[in-house]
Write a structure and sequence with these properties.
Layout lengths: L4 E10 L3 E4 H5 L6 H8 L3 E4 L7 H16 L8 E5 L10 H9 L5 E5 L5 H14 L6 E8 L9 H4 L4 E11 L4 E9 L7 E3 L10 H5 L5 E3 L1 H22 L9 E4 L4 H11 L10 H4 L6 H9 L8 E8 L3 E8 L5
Parallel strand pairs: 4-5, 4-6, 11-12
Antiparallel strand pairs: 1-7, 2-3, 6-7, 8-13, 9-10, 12-13
Helix pairs in contact: 3-4, 8-9
């Protein structure tokens, strides 16, 4: 019996029009362009401005692009999985809203909360539904409106994050392409170093929690940086070893865009030269679950059928992992 593989057959993306550059941040907090670029690699980030605009709005635009590219209707979609930590509401899910807004009447889905690893977790999950033969068309989205939970008086976090959404369409194929393997990991002990304290069931919203600015992202930079460097580099090397891949076998590293130094450390561990590393952190910053699909969106025209990709991420919680994937089409 021929094995069914989950192929990526289309990519869509969306970033807001408003550009928040380093020079503007200099007016908001005690920082400067040279400091930001030397430590993160970020020059600017996109921000979704306007009252009542949620992450679903960006997701919908990314999905519309996919439907247009594949010339399919929304009613053909079986499932939508959204990796995000900035859902429009606690409930219903962002996936539920997207299904309604685009007219995906035959689809169901849910949101995956894994911070910066959200797209990675979602892609691995979506691939399983395809491989079983149960579904034919699944859209996997990674998206976050980080500006909604960032304190723009905190220079340790406001320089890093931006808003954006990316999506891929998964379809079955019997060629030796698509999602080949994955390693996913988690360690809840890391939550004290990177988390949003208030707003959940443990610390519901109160006047006091708002006054203490506990509804924003908190990050203890040093332990997070060390864990991210080790985690992303180790898991990328592990998936190579598990699948007997050498550096010359890999066409592209698709790394989460958290920090250029973390990306460089991961590439070095894998023995990859800079031209094999996808990078757009300089123009979008860290869009959390959105970074990896936005990379695929930006680099789509450079990808060739049969290319070997290693996708890696590290996120708050901690969550991290890597996916080994063979690209399934020529643009």
């Amino acid at each position: 019996m021929t094995k069914i593989n989950a192929h990526i057959t289309a990519v869509g993306g969306y970033v807001p029009d408003y550009v928040l550059g380093n020079k503007e941040l200099e007016k908001m907090v005690d920082t400067n362009d040279e400091w930001i670029q030397s430590r993160t690699g970020i020059k600017e980030r996109r921000i979704l401005k306007g009252e009542g605009r949620g992450v679903s709005e960006m997701c919908i635009e990314a999905v519309k692009e996919i439907l247009k590219k594949r010339k399919i209707g929304a009613e053909e979609i079986d499932m939508i999985i959204v990796g995000t930590i900035t859902s429009d509401y606690n409930f219903p899910s962002t996936s539920n809203i997207i299904c309604d807004e685009i007219g995906a009447k035959n689809a169901w889905g849910y949101d995956v909360s894994a911070a910066c690893s959200g797209f990675l977790y979602s892609l691995a999950t979506g691939a399983q539904f395809i491989e079983t033969g149960r579904y034919k068309k699944i859209i996997v989205i990674g998206a976050d409106k980080m500006s909604s939970i960032i304190d723009y008086t905190d220079r340790s976090t406001c320089i890093i994050f931006g808003d954006g959404a990316g999506a891929v369409l998964l379809e079955p194929g019997d060629e030796n392409l698509g999602v080949k393997d994955f390693i996913l990991k988690a360690d809840g002990a890391g939550r004290k170093f990177l988390f949003q304290k208030a707003g959940g069931s443990r610390f519901p919203a109160t006047h006091d929690s708002i006054d203490k600015r506990e509804h924003y992202v908190f990050q203890d930079g040093q332990p997070v940086f060390k864990a991210a460097v080790t985690g992303m580099a180790d898991v990328s090397a592990q998936i190579m070893e598990k699948n007997q891949l050498k550096s010359e076998d890999i066409n592209w590293l698709v790394p989460h865009q958290a920090n250029k130094r973390i990306i460089d450390a991961t590439a070095n561990r894998m023995g990859l030269s800079p031209e094999k590393v996808m990078m757009n952190i300089e123009k979008y910053g860290n869009t959390t679950a959105g970074t990896i699909p936005l990379l695929l969106w930006d680099y789509e025209k450079q990808l060739k059928k049969g290319d070997t990709l290693i996708i890696s991420a590290f996120g708050g919680g901690y969550t991290w992992g890597s996916i080994y994937l063979k690209w399934a089409y020529n643009s």
